[in-house]
Amino acid sequence: MKEDHHAGDQHPGGTEWVLKAIPDAENPYRLLNLKLTPVKSWAAGIPAVMAAMKDLMEEKAFLRGNIALLKMNQFKGFDCPSCAWPDPDDERSPIAEYCENGAKALAEEATTKKLTTEFFKDNSVVDLAKLDDYRIGKLGRLTEPMYLPKGGTHYQPICWDDAFKKIAEHLNALEAPDEAAFYTSGRTSNEASFVYQLFAKEFGTNNMPDCSNMCHETSGSALRPTIGIGKGTVKLEDFYDTDVIIVIGQNPGTNAPRMMSALAKGKKNGARIIAVNPLPEAGLMGFRNPQEVSGVLGNGEKLADLYLPVRINGDMAFLKAIELLLLEFEKQSPGEVLDHRFIREKTVNYDLFIEQFANYNLDDLAAEAGLEPAAIYEAAQMLAFKKRIIVCWGMGLTQQPNGVDMIREMLNILLLKGSIGIQGGGVCPVRGHSNVQGNRTMLIDEKPTDEQLDRLENFFGFKVPRSHGYDVVRVIKAMHDEKVKVLFCMGGNFLSATPDTTYTANALRKLNLLVCVSTKLNRGHLIHGKEAIILPTYGRSDKDIVNGELQFVSTENSMGVVQHSKGVLDPVSRNLINETQIVCRMAMATLGSRAVVNWQRYHDSYDAVRDDIEQCIPGFKDYNVRVREKGGFYLPNAARDEQRFAKQYGYRAPFTLTVVPENRLADDEYMMATTRTHDQFNTTIYGLDDRYRGIHNERRVVFMNQKDIDKAGFKAGDKVDLFNYDDDIERIAPLFIIVSYPIPEKNTVTYFPETNVLVSVNNVVKESNMPASKYVKIKIRGHDPEVYKKIDEMLHKGQLQR
């Protein structure tokens, strides 16, 4: 892959360069060779094992990777770099305490393919940007720091000292600290997260956008004011001994495959499962456990007892209908449906809450939800005389414009039933990346509380910034307005993860400096500021040796367990630095003699970092002792352990009043939700198949109901262009293939990041300010090759950059 010069090329950021060299800020506009197979009714099984092994072979790491897999999620091993689903507290499989996606994530880290100086010398940023995300990710591990100078076309090597000197020069040249922002991905360890936020505060800013701002910020915004903690209230063992599990807006087969084991175990012990989702996902329908005979030779486990195909954003109407029926059942059987003692002693606003139901009726709510009244009635019956109820949700709820209200409505149901803070009952936001919850516990937060800041200020002795910083959406706008001039990304793929791709690309190109700490190349390195630096670091599975001693880091899973993680693989390069040391060296280079924090101490010892975490963050007493114990330790959770809820309500939980939204679409409009394939994790594309949905060798597809296809005069397999008109701006995602799928009418689903371009930066969730990527109004038109000319004209006029 050699450089292909283009006539008229300018340096990155110039309109002509963008026009001729980059076919799309996200992915090139080209189709592959779509193949369709029947939709699966079960997930996992032997195909999952084979897919995982195939990835290891493709990464030329079969032996090396399998050695590491035997240590992944083990008590003395390393934490999976994929999702945050918890490991069992008791027995763990000695050979496979991981899922297919965990194995694929490990394969990405264990790969023996390397990106060296010679690679970047031979391949320009222009050439690399022409590749799709899948091929970029498969190039191999980064091996040394790389620098793209102003006006440069190729990344070139830079030594670590010079890299930190360059970063320090940019940071110290800013007129104010708030002209810098520090982004965090959910992969970052507790130790690195703590020193990272500490550096940002000593530098003088709370501009700490992070991946929570795009996935579960909505959950925290809903739960903190109501139950006093922005986390779930169940443990893994609660799934094994419960009566009803509701899985809403979440697809465990792809997003948290090990969750299916917990669901199956609960099912065997008598639990019933209600699945609520626009798409009938395989991971909601059935599970074949490859470690059991029934999963290999038999039909596996049926999971959902009741599947409810709610339309996009019809969830609120469904939840209100459930509550309406529970109140009716209570009238018929007083004292047997609702927990009046719990309501009286642990909640507020009950009377005001029930008054609203005089204005609702089942038929109207069912119609708004897109469900049959009889199906909702069946769900309510499953809940009516049960108390141990767990509600799980994912981004299908958190990325709706009223997501905060919908989570509070689910909480209302649990409050009616007294089903929170009990064994086998509570809320369970299913987190994405492996330490996204730990990041927030470690104060990666653009809105730290005064109490948190007071502790830091009192312990370290420097004046911490008090004003709130930028979240992801606000930092994109600030970069666009040139109020933020330096962006430092601790992991992640900022461009591909964020909404409004062209707008975000414009913003990134206005930066003076973009710095990315990464293990592999991604598109976020190719749409950059005037200067750019890539700092290579260890993966979770790599051995991290400091001063001759093998170190461990710690993470926090979805259920509040803090555990240690120690890598086992020899790193692919001797020129890598761990994330904690990267932060410390940046701090020492930037702050110099004005630093109050002893950054060298942290640089030399993770134990020293943990000692000070213990002093600054509640729940970490004897951190260095307890984290070394088998299985780690649980953080305090007053809502779970004491039924002690929101302080402002006298440690009670309020019933919340919400409204049912009116979702109206024009005749030629559809509601679109973005999702990921089974062959990806967040923005990392492992492969081009989505086998559970029957999609192979293609990502540019749009799932539609067959009635909508017929009504619009299309047919399955047609090529179409997708349009969004929020903010009176025409956004275009060209060249998609229609796939007929059992989805509610007027609803469509596409994959991200390919359709992030259609998600307006202003289409956000109320209160949490998260991108509402599951609620995008689009129009669909037959593919017109002339659309490329239109895009080029917009580029030339400066209206658009890809």
Explain how this protein is built.
The protein has 802 residues and is of the alpha/beta class. The chain has 34 helices and 33 strands. It has a six-stranded mixed β-sheet. Strand 19 (545-546) and strand 20 (549-550) form a beta hairpin. Helix 8 (160-172) packs across helix 28 (579-591). The longest helix is centred in the middle third of the chain and has 18 residues, at 315-332. 57% of the residues are buried.
Mean pLDDT: 91
Low-confidence stretches: 1-23, 798-802
Radius of gyration from CA coordinates = 25 Å
Q: Helical proportion? A: 25-40%
How much strand?
Answer: 15-25%
DSSP summary: helix tally: 34
Taking the alpha carbons of the first and last residues, their distance comes to 22 Å
Outline type: globular
